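Can anyone check this?
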Amino acid sequence: MSRARQVIVEDHVSAYWASSASAFELGVLVGQLSSSNVGDFVLSAVPVPSEIESGEAASSLADVSVEWVQEVAQQVDRLLPGGISVLGLYVIAAQDVANQAEPYLRAAAEAVQLPTSVRVADDVHYLALVKPGGVTFKSYFNVVNVTKTLMLPAESKAQTTEFQFKQYRTLVDIDEPIPFVTVAPTATLASVEIAERRTNELQTELQPFIRRVEGAMAVLKKTEDPEVQHMNMLTLTPPAAQKSIYGPVGGVKGAISCVAFVAQDEPEANEVAVNYLKRDFVKSLLLRVALAREKWAEDDEAEPNTSFSDGGLVRLAQRGTVPWQSAVSSSSHFLATIHVFPEEDSVEVVKNALEILGGAEEEDDEAWTAMENNTYLATSGDAQVGFIKPDYKLVFFLFPIGIALLMLLIQQGMIVQDALYNY
């Protein structure tokens, strides 16, 4: 933070702002932060749609709620791959609205926070103030923490050369036992309660595995793919003490696909990509759990949910990619990622997911390409969560006891045999 950060704006975004500078607009900045401050990239932007059913456009910040901006930022963030993030907000207005816009920026930053120890760049978000005379960028460090927020001017630069971004991918296999709490078959719980309880347990119990992935090593994998650099993630083996699982046991098994895009001007691009892939893993895994919670929470009938009950099986959403296209610009530098449940119509899900971007075309709905089907990295299938039935759990826990008793009987028999022989 010793010098102002440089922000490089993609030509299509600059052209959009220049043509729209006469009318008020609030939107989300999408791009990449540099880990070495060679330049942060604004690759695209997404106008905040009207929160009024009539679709009437807002004429000032007063017409837009902070909660709505937070919701839009979260939905946009769910579509972004590793390395690409919500950088902040832009405001097209004739007056200087920096002070009024700061709560909106803080809300957007809160919505896209990722609970991970892997850090790639400074904790900075941008506010772009667009006026007929040009664009001014302000950088906000630690904007979520009001007491530590530091605002500094940022240097805006026009695009002078073609951006070059490299795509990286990996696949993380997961096969983790989870000590779920038993839900009695006679329990009268609403589906939303069971889904909430199970997904909360799952999110908590997956933390040790997430930490192992965060500490994993990655090696480049040689393939004949000219477009993508593939990597193998060497996940750390858990300590022996952590292998003992007590209580009713279920598990999560499958594969989590990860993708990241890194500017090729970035020094040590491969190392940066590894960290982005790790962050993408955390984001995609937790998003799949959140989507499962949201999906089953829609049914609020006071009946046990068999999918989340003992013996049930929940298939988590699969991940796929589509071209990025917002109302501001398309982008050849990165892809949008969308999670779809196996039983859902991918075309309909993609259509609904891309609606927030405002610029998706009809053919984009059918362009979803599953990532878990990868010819270069072996996969054990889409991720799924299982809840073992009580009978199986009883066998699971009694089996070691039975073995111990059997060994004891054998030992006692050998002692008696020796005594008779000596006699």
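Reply from J.R.: I decoded it. The longest strand covers residues 165-178.
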